[in-house]
Amino acid sequence: MLRFELFFIGLFMLRDFNILVSTVRGNERAMINEILFLLKNYLDDKEAEAVKTGVRGIIVAKTSLDPYVAVDKLRNVLRERPYEFRFALRIIPIERVVPTDLETIKNVSLELATRIMRDETYRITVEKRCTMLHSSDIISAVASGIGQKADMENPDKIVLIEIMGTLTGISLIKPVEIISVMKEKML
Fold first, then answer.
1. Total-model pTM
2. Backbone angles phi, psi at 124, to 5 degrees
3. 3-class SS string, the chain
4. Cα distance between residue 2 and residue 70, in whole Å
């Protein structure tokens, strides 16, 4: 059964998504409508796409904009019009999408990690869904190739690995580049 679910999740998902959005389980369709409305109307991205992933509470989107720029602009919309965000919990830019394979994840993560400056700290965060890979194996494989100092509490950069069945989104981000909608509404 698990093999079928893993296949099914990767079958219908956008393979070149560059934004990942979490929502409350069961609100995936409403979240798709919300992110498309935001991308098309506030960011003027008429080509934006969004779909369910097969993982409850997670949708992915594809914007023609740089995902970091898009997420930053969405943060500005959130500050000015917080009522437009009814279903989103977190909005995350994704740089690369790869098959869920330990060696591929390691290689792409290390490629992105070359942008961590010598004096910066990092953390590896793995969010895994519908996979048999172990977080500790992924973290060990990636960390072995990064020479900078790790900081689990307050890193300068995060190697973010988002696994959803047969596809994995990877980014090298600053902690402030993730929108946590509820936290930011409270500010």
1. 0.90
2. -105, 125
3. CHHHHHHHHHHHCCCCCCEEEEECCCCHHHHHHHHHHHHHHHCCCCCCEEEECCCCCEEEEECCCCHHHHHHHHHHHHHHCHHHCCCEEEEEECCEEEECCHHHHHHHHHHHHCCCCCCCCEEEEEEEECCCCCHHHHHHHHHCCCCCCECCCCCCEEEEEEEECCEEEEEEECHHHCEEHHHHHHC
4. 34
CA 167 to chain centre: 12
Q: Which of 19, 74, 17, 83 is nearest to 43 (CA)?
A: 74
Q: Are 104 and 98 in contact (CB under 8 A)?
A: yes
Structure tokens at 172: 């090298």
Burial 70-80 (b: 16+ CB within 10 A, else e): bbebbbeebee
pLDDT (tens digit per residue) in 147-181: 999 999 999 999 999 999 889 999 999 999 999 99
CA dist., res. 115 & res. 119, Å (int): 11
